[in-house]
Amino acid sequence: MAWELFRRNLNYWRFRFPQVVLLGTTGTISGTALPLSFIKLCPGGPSTTANGAGDFILSYVPIGTYRIISTSADRAQQGSEDIEVATDSTTTVNFTYSSTNDPGCP
Predict the structure, then answer these.
(1) What is the pLDDT of residue 97?
(2) Do residues 85 and 64 touch, judged by C-beta distance below 8 A?
(3) DSSP letters along 19-45, please?
(4) What's the rounded Cα separation, in Å, for the pair 49 and 90?
């Protein structure tokens, strides 16, 4: 129980103060989406906005399995399959859009 409480508290601080993390406990997600799309990590993780070229990066993501939702300016949404974030590595996710996509994350 003490370990679970420590892990929960550590995740809380990682998302609020990403510069205060333990080495070897996070990874990075990067990729491309439509320019200026909003990128959200599910469940309940950090978010970012793609730049004018469509590139994005999410740093200091705790190790685990996630889905990523991308919402473009015209509200088209795309969800990723489950992706695995590994220690000190970068996972790449590139989005394509269609009108029938169900992102699968609230």
Answers:
(1) 65
(2) yes
(3) TS--TTSEEEEEEE-STT-EEEEETT-
(4) 18
Residues 24-41: tens digit of each pLDDT? 788 899 999 888 888 888
Pull the structure tokens for residue 46. 């950090």
Residues 41 and 47: their CA atoms lie apart, in Å, by 6
CB-based contact 15:54 (threshold 8 Å) = no
- Give the domains, in start order, of the chain with CATH numbers: 25-94 (2.60.40.10)
Question: What does the alpha-carbon distance between residue 105 and residue 69 come to, in Å, rounded to a whole number?
Answer: 7
Q: If you ran DSSP here, which 8-state letter would residue 9 be given?
A: H
Tokens (6 digits) for 71: 């919402």
Q: Which residue in this structure is represented by tokens 């996509």? A: 101
pLDDT less than 50: residues of the chain: none
**In whole angstroms, how far apart are CA 34 and each of 26, 44, 75, 101?**
26, 22, 11, 14
